[in-house]
Specification:
alpha+beta, 2 domains, 8-stranded mixed β-sheet, 434 residues, single chain, two-stranded antiparallel sheet, D-Maltodextrin-Binding Protein, domain 2, disordered N terminus
């Protein structure tokens, strides 16, 4: 298991907090007994909409628990948690945390251990997607969050654009097959001599597909940085192959240009999390109903299984500084371990349930109308079930940032392949030594 250490450069405040509090043993939380409590629930879109819809029913069961939802944008929410958890004050009683931040925020005791009494979260382990439970597990004796939704990785593509050039998604089995398809899908459609339709929004998502499909994304089994290996060398080389062929629009995720690429249908194929279908149909491209479909990600080579990626996922945690831990646990259980509430969140915000019982309900297994009534659930369930255990580290975000920066340099021709990966690994190693 990767050793957890706080970065002096980022968490100076937290070090002093931990040193100061290390001499005192925190009193165990009590079981909630009906007292009047006001809980702060910190979330990001679109969990705010999903959980707001559940509060009326929650208050029928717990009339004395008032829940105030504090919602900020994804980045602001998580950056705020970094600050408040490090400072030891200001965090909500319940905090939603996306997988990319879970290791960093839980390092040094930021969240309570939900395996301990009175939480006893281990009773729910067999009811939750195994790889998501592993992500929340700091060790066999510590779980820092309850998974509420997952993000099976898939390819989201424009069926109509494929048909325009005589292509079928069924013929794309490997990344090399995708490259060949890109030769037709990347084109000038108005005859002005400039490419206006691309295969991809950005070749970076090729590498992300590789990163999110391995149990040890940034470290080896001994916890040492492992970025300069054959796996990532191949991923970088493949991404540059697409870039050099002009097959990606070179727009950054969530930028106005990126959003427009989906709205206008100028990018034919995007590796991403299945949850993105909800964004497409609700606000990015609602008028593109019946034009998008999803498929499994390609395989490394002929005969291999398609990539099984974990592309996002959320957890509900209790910050250690919370004064209302018992009531906070009741709210988490209500959202995360009630089948009807997991289904309601899926219907409201397209969050793929981490709660396995929800997978068996008819209302979850309906075909996706926005995707031309494609029956996507068997595929996504298969991806989630096949995904190996994924383990988190306090350095995951840092590692991804270093890897992405080196990838950008490589794609832009500023560095060679070996130099780019060595640079990323070296920076990560040095940061971990601070």
């Amino acid at each position: 298991m990767i050793m957890k250490k706080l970065s002096r450069a980022i968490f100076v405040i937290a070090i002093f907090t931990i040193l100061f509090s290390g001499c005192k043993k925190e009193k165990s939380a009590e079981v909630y007994n009906g007292e009047e409590v006001t809980l702060k629930l910190g979330v990001f879109p679109s969990l705010d909409v999903a959980y707001e819809a559940l509060l009326a029913d929650f208050n029928k069961d717990f009339p004395n628990i008032k829940v105030e939802i504090e919602s900020m944008g994804y980045g602001d929410h998580h950056n705020g948690l970094v600050t408040t958890i490090a400072a030891g004050t200001g965090a909500p009683d319940v905090a939603a945390v996306e997988i990319g931040f879970l290791g960093q925020l839980s390092d040094g005791g930021g969240f309570v251990n939900l395996l301990e009494a009175p939480y006893n979260a281990g009773q729910y382990k067999d009811k939750i997607v195994p790889y998501a439970w592993a992500q929340a597990s700091i060790s066999d004796k510590e779980v820092v969050g309850i998974p509420v939704d997952i993000g099976p990785g898939c390819a989201i593509y424009r069926k109509d654009k494929f048909e325009e050039v005589g292509l079928s998604i069924d013929n794309i089995k490997t990344w090399d097959d995708l490259y060949e398809a890109g030769k037709k899908l990347t084109r000038d459609t108005n005859g002005d001599g400039k490419v206006d339709h691309w295969l991809l929004t950005n070749a970076i998502n090729i590498v992300r597909s590789f990163v999110y499909s391995t149990p040890y994304a940034y470290f080896d089994e001994n916890g040492k940085p492992d970025l300069n290996n054959e796996y990532y060398q191949y991923a970088f080389t493949m991404a540059k192959k697409f870039r050099d062929a002009g097959m990606d629009a070179q727009v950054q995720d969530w930028s106005p240009e990126w959003i427009a690429a989906f709205k206008d249908g100028v990018a034919a194929y995007t590796p991403f999390g299945s949850w993105f279908v909800g964004s497409l149909k609700s606000w990015i491209a609602p008028d593109a109903k019946d034009k998008f479909r999803i498929s499994e990600l390609p395989a490394l080579k002929d005969g291999d299984q398609p990539f099984k990626a974990s592309w996002g996922g959320s957890f509900l945690t209790i910050p250690s500084q919370s004064k209302n831990k018992a009531a906070a646990w009741e709210l988490i259980k209500f959202i995360a371990t009630k089948t009807e509430n997991q289904l309601a969140s899926y219907q409201t915000a397209n969050t793929f349930p981490a709660w396995l019982d929800a997978w068996e309900k008819p209302e979850f297994n309906k075909p996706e109308e926005y995707l031309g009534n494609q029956d996507i659930k068997p595929m996504l369930k298969s991806i989630a079930k096949a995904r190996p255990g994924v383990y988190t580290s306090a350095y995951d975000n840092m590692a991804l940032n270093f890897l992405t920066a080196s990838l950008n340099d490589y794609l832009e021709g500023k560095t060679g392949l070996e130099e780019a990966l060595k640079q990323a690994e070296s920076k990560l190693s040095k940061q971990m030594e601070l």
